[in-house]
Write a structure and sequence with these properties.
By secondary structure, the chain is α/β, with parallel strands linked by helices. 43% of the residues lie in helices and 17% in strands. α6 runs antiparallel to α7 and α7 runs antiparallel to α12.
């Protein structure tokens, strides 16, 4: 299926200049465009070396060309790839030649992937996994995105849908025979099967979400003024983002930076020093914001007097190189951001702790949209289990299947698709 029968083209590799530039063409006129450029036919699914010519017969480049007949192509329609030399002038000349051909136009963001979705080559969950893969910046993000792109989530949802369909068939059978007196109620085991399906779905809902991989494990550094928060913050992010000074109240506002440590994404947050007295108006606003950040943190690091920090915070004895540091009897870590003492063990502990709240490598994850659809299905299943009217039970099971269909894209809206494929670059 091509939008309005059009054929699209775009550079699908990195921006020139580069060693090789891959120009992708997809649509009903792809093979005609290839023949126009090379002046001859080429064998499908086999790389061929060919000279590319413009309309006036000028030589544009010598390239490796491939053609992929649909529907067995990436987009489900006829596709061509031109592996050209990656100079800006070469790429511009070839794209200009393609743009001069009737029926061809430049692709929009995500249009190749959108056509793959429209033609059934991938479903919505796999498309979202691909979008996440293109945006991945850490090892955990890459692994999770590859799992979803590879169809792990789609396969699980399809299995759940098949089970919901089987349950619906049991309800339909009960309805068909109820008039004859052969079946008075749902078959034995119906409720048990619903409970089993719900348990599997709840396990998925309890997993860490995809957004956690993007936002990172949020760690807030808290404590009184001059407890070493900003110096430790700068060391953790390996940047001089926060001003450090012996003057109390130097940090007035929240400063946050995102970094990856051992492939795990973190967001570290430096806050104003917490004190009850002596803060002027601007500093007081910063202190209020610091309390708010502690409340939303995944983990707080407390650098103040032992036992006076937020509940669940790690007790950190910072500035171990200074004689007047705050000493703690049960500090989880004793560190010096200046000398580096204790920092390696401290970071390793942070990574191990953060991994527990992140999706495990190879484990399918849910994003916010998918989570909402799965919640809808679970709610409908719970309603089906509690109803006695077979017609209502059947309707609730239909709602379950519809939620699954929306999750993988069998039933969706154009606005949602526009938002998703708008995340892709041109050429993908």
């Amino acid at each position: 299926m091509s939008a309005n029968g059009s054929t699209i083209f775009a550079v699908s590799s990195g921006a020139p200049p580069c060693a090789i530039a891959v120009i992708r063409i997809s649509g009903p006129d792809s093979f005609g465009a290839l023949n126009s450029l090379v002046g001859r036919d080429v064998a499908p699914r086999r790389p061929s070396l060919a000279k590319l010519f413009g309309k006036n017969g000028d030589l544009l480049d010598e390239a490796l060309v491939l053609k992929f007949p649909g529907p067995g192509s990436a987009t489900g329609e006829d596709c061509v790839e031109l592996h050209c030399h990656g100079g800006r002038a070469v790429v511009a000349a070839v794209c200009a030649a393609l743009g001069s051909l009737d029926g061809l136009r430049p692709a929009e963001e995500g249009e190749f992937t959108r056509r793959a979705f429209a033609n059934g080559r991938i479903d919505l969950a796999a498309a979202e996994g691909l979008a996440d893969l293109l945006e991945a910046e850490t090892e955990l993000q890459r692994a999770a995105a590859l799992t979803n792109m590879g169809g792990a989530l789609s396969a699980r949802v399809e299995a759940w849908r098949d089970e919901a369909l089987r349950l619906s068939a049991q309800v339909e059978a009960a309805l068909d025979f109820s008039d004859e007196g052969d079946v008075d109620d749902l078959p034995e085991g119906f409720t048990w099967n619903v409970d089993s399906l719900m348990a599997e779905m709840r396990e998925f809902l309890e997993r860490p979400r995809t957004e956690k991989l993007k936002e990172g494990f949020r760690v807030v550094l808290a404590g009184p003024p001059n407890s070493g928060k900003s110096t430790l913050f700068n060391t953790l992010i390996e940047s001089e983002a926060a001003i450090t000074s012996p003057i109390a109240g130097t940090t007035r506002d929240v400063i946050e930076r995102s970094v990856a440590i051992s492939g795990v994404p973190f967001t570290f947050v430096d806050t104003a020093g917490l004190r009850e007295h002596g803060a002027e108006e601007i500093e007081a606003i910063g202190i209020a914001r610091a309390h708010a950040e502690v409340d939303r943190a995944d983990l707080a690091l407390w650098l103040g007097d032992e036992g006076k920090g937020p509940k669940g915070a790690w007790e950190i004895s910072a500035r171990s190189d200074e004689a007047d540091r705050i000493k703690k009897a049960r500090a989880r870590h004793v560190v010096s951001a200046v000398t580096g003492d204790g920092m390696a063990d401290f970071k390793a502990d942070l990574v191990a702790h953060a991994r527990q709240s992140m999706p495990r490598p190879g484990e399918a994850t849910l994003n916010r949209r998918q989570y909402a659809r799965l919640e809808e299905a679970l709610e409908a299943l719970d309603a089906a289990k509690s109803r006695s009217d077979l017609l209502i039970v059947g309707e609730e099971l239909r709602r379950v299947r519809l939620a699954f269909d929306r999750l993988v894209g069998r039933a969706t809206t154009e606005d949602m698709l526009d938002a998703l494929f708008g995340r892709f670059c041109i050429g993908k």
